[in-house]
Amino acid sequence: MNVAVVMYDRINLINFANVLGFIKSFENANVKTCGFKSEVVDEFGIKMHPEIYGEGIYGADILVVPDGVGALNLRHDEIFLSWIKSGSSTKTKIGFDLGSLILAGAGFLQGKKATIRGGYKNALSEYCEICGEKVCQSGDIISVSEWGDEIKSKLAQILA
Length: 160
What we know:
Elements: E1 2-7, H1 13-24, E2 30-35, E3 40-41, E4 47-48, E5 52-53, E6 62-65, H2 71-74, H3 78-85, E7 92-96, H4 99-105, E8 113-114, H5 121-125, E9 129-130, E10 135-138, E11 141-144, H6 149-159
Parallel strand pairs: 1-2, 1-6, 2-5, 6-7, 7-11, 8-9
Antiparallel strand pairs: 3-4, 10-11
């Protein structure tokens, strides 16, 4: 199973590491970090380099967008969102907390439900209906407001 984990400026490195580490623990998961550009900087200024950059997200089965305050601006960046849309054929799209705003900005949440932590519900409600659960699945979209056992179980089902 091909998994594309998106990296972007002002990504939350802790969420990124948790998600990436968990997904890579599955033998059948072929995980690649993907970025729109060759270097991204996390919320604290740490520079990182995605394995694949500047290429479309075609061929992935799962698209994962980790949490990060950078999503607040990127949800309005049409060039970045065009790149995210190249992953439209993925079977499953997963947005972790603010990462769901990127999926929303790309149009993936239109007519669907999603979840996000409390202070950002108004921002997400511009795009879709708000779900009150920690993990919300609506069609091919899974949104997560909090990393924990519930999403680990859901990911294990998808990756098994």
